[in-house]
Amino acid sequence: MVSRSQATCQTGWREALAASLVEVDELLELLGLRRSDIPDLAPHSTPFRLRVPRGFAALMRPRDPDDPLLRQVLPLGAEAREVAGFVTDPVDDAGAARGHGLLGKYQGRALLITTGACAIHCRYCFRRHYPYGHEARPEAALEAIETDTRLTEVILSGGDPLMLDDARLGALIARLAKMAHLRRLRIHSRLPVVLPERVTPELIARLAGTRLKPVLVIHANHANELSAASAAALAELRRAGVTLLNQSVLLRGVNDGVEALHALSERLFTCGVLPYYLHQLDPVRGAAHFEVGDEEARALIRALRAQLPGYLVPRLVRERPGAPFKLPLDAEPDGLPMARTAAG
Q1: Tens-digit pLDDT profile for residues 22-61
Q2: Residue 297 sits in a domain of what CATH number?
């Protein structure tokens, strides 16, 4: 039975979600900006609409059209331009599909698309064109996980899995925990960053109470995203025994500088989160204007290594369709390990 305080928390995050900004002009007015301040602003509503929680918008710098948080969510005319190599399924989710929202890409792990919903619409999202609806029969996906005893870890993804309410998410976790071959539960979510109200006592209890080792991979690209409310939510998760990691995407105009990446790593560590991956942009149609070249990316990581201890430097990687792991780009020029002689 849900207590009064738990019910209040559940209502609180849903109310915050319902109050999200969905109109460009409303967001611009809130920031003291005019359409003329952003020359490449998309002239009309796009199929991939704006959605921004008000708490996240409050972290943006007023009257700054180049604010790194604003740049991540604001629809631009550049999204409509066709750019060679930028496609609707850049990581070949379709090729990895095992049916009913279940993806199998890497040995011992399966990824479950739990929902197509997100609290925020990031313009560089690699699944912005994904045909959601395949997760309509979660029971079939769970049966596939249950019968595949090679699996040791299940990754809940989306959309954003924390868009599920605590009861539904808890039932899913409990079902997975009954599968003896599973050891870890990994959740990829942006909500602790953009909607920290979602970290409810009930959610924490569900994660702390499972026999599976819980790992939460958050997604922050800039230090300014990690508010005091986010830090408090992350501290609660960490106290509950949840391993906290962060993955970022390297984005032109957002975090493509050593100072921004340095500040992000420091802020993450203050919040009890270790930097995990810095992804090169997945070439999804509509996001080419965010691209940073590989050589520039490697130079940024080299400079970051000179300033920070190794555990605060994320691994620069790219996901390549069909590869058995994320390909590291920061060790060798082509991102693949070089052959070594016996003397080497």
Answers
A1: 999 999 999 999 999 999 999 877 888 999 999 999 999 9
A2: 3.20.20.70
Same domain, 27 and 112: no
16, 87, 113, 150 from 28: Cα distances, Å: 19, 29, 33, 50
| Same-domain pairing of 154 and 183 | yes
Structurally, the chain folds into a number of domains equal to: 2
pLDDT tens across 145-201, in order? Answer: 999 999 999 999 999 999 999 999 999 999 999 999 999 999 999 999 999 999 999
Of 66, 69, 73, the closest CA to residue 33 belongs to 66
- Domain range enclosing 42: 19-80
The residue with tokens 């149609």 is: 285
Cα(53)–Cα(192) distance, integer angstroms: 12
Q: Which two tokens stand for residue 283?
A: 């070439």
User: Are the C-beta atoms of 194 and 148 separated by less than 8 Å?
Assistant: no
The secondary structure of residue 314, as a DSSP letter, is P
pTM, whole model, 2 decimals?
0.91
Query: Reduced to 3 states, what is the DSSP secondary structure of residue 276?
Result: strand
Tokens of residue 304, six digits: 């970051």
